[in-house]
Specification:
Blueprint (H helix, E strand, L loop, with lengths): L1 H16 L16 H18 L2 H15 L28 E2 L6 E3 L6 H11 L2 H11 L23 E3 L8 E2 L4 H18 L4 H4 L4 H14 L12
Antiparallel strand pairs: 1-2, 2-3, 3-4
């Protein structure tokens, strides 16, 4: 706990106040990217859970707004004569996100964050976060071979990355990696831990007060064990 707070006190001025969301991945370091925003949102939300200090919630909100700017919120048309793209079979580009600044590669990595955005919605009442949560859960799966219609060897396979702005738009890395499954499954488990339901469309039917209460209960345990709380600021 003390180590987490020290990390937060270091990161708050460096990342939040400087608006400095910079990635550290080995294959594309030292650039502003989406993943740094996602990780900042995760960390600041965790600190808010254990402290109830609104400064951490504000930092999580800013990271959430920043991260959402990488998302395609509109459909990009493919070249009409190209019937071999990922998006040639009534598949839309909405919900896919640029990976980082400086290049055109996009992927479905926002799947990781549907749970965090839903919690931000419950904490703030801002329906922007609800909409991003739903796009992160559902739209990102448009490139997944759920029904077997993409012709991959197995269902649930999904290509790692693709371009949506270059002349070869709709094409990219035609390979599946384990992180793709993790990005889709991890938030579903977290939804189950917190609410006992993973479908946001179903959760929207529940009373808002019940969702807020369950979200507050989850903050005390993060799905690990019951009875933990801290007043440390």
């Amino acid at each position: 706990m003390n180590a987490a707070l020290k990390a937060g006190r270091f990161s708050y001025p460096l990342i939040h106040q400087n608006y400095l969301y910079v990635g550290r991945v080995l294959d594309n370091p030292n650039v502003r990217d989406r993943e740094s925003g996602q990780q900042a949102m995760n960390a600041f939300l965790a600190l808010y859970d254990v402290t109830s200090n609104k400064k951490w919630l504000n930092a999580a909100k800013q990271a959430g707004y920043y991260t959402a700017t990488f998302m395609y919120s509109y459909n990009i048309p493919m070249i009409p004569t190209d019937t071999t793209t990922l998006f040639s079979n009534n598949t839309k580009t909405t919900g896919q996100t640029l990976i980082a600044t400086g290049h055109s590669a996009a992927d479905m990595g926002m799947s990781w964050s549907s749970f965090q955005y839903f919690r931000l919605y419950l904490f703030t009442g801002d329906k922007f976060f609800l909409n991003i949560s739903k796009m992160s859960m559902y739209n990102t799966l448009q490139t997944m071979n759920i029904k077997g219609s993409f012709g991959y060897d197995y269902k649930a396979m999904q290509p790692e990355a693709f371009s949506l702005v270059a002349s070869n738009r709709g094409h990219g890395v035609d390979q599946w990696f384990p992180w793709l499954a993790a990005a889709a499954m991890d938030p579903l488990h977290r939804f189950m831990d917190a609410f006992g339901e993973y479908d946001i469309k179903e959760l929207e039917k529940w009373p808002k007060e019940k969702l807020i209460e369950l979200n507050s209960d989850y903050a005390k345990t993060l799905g690990i064990y019951r009875g933990f709380s801290s007043s440390t600021q």
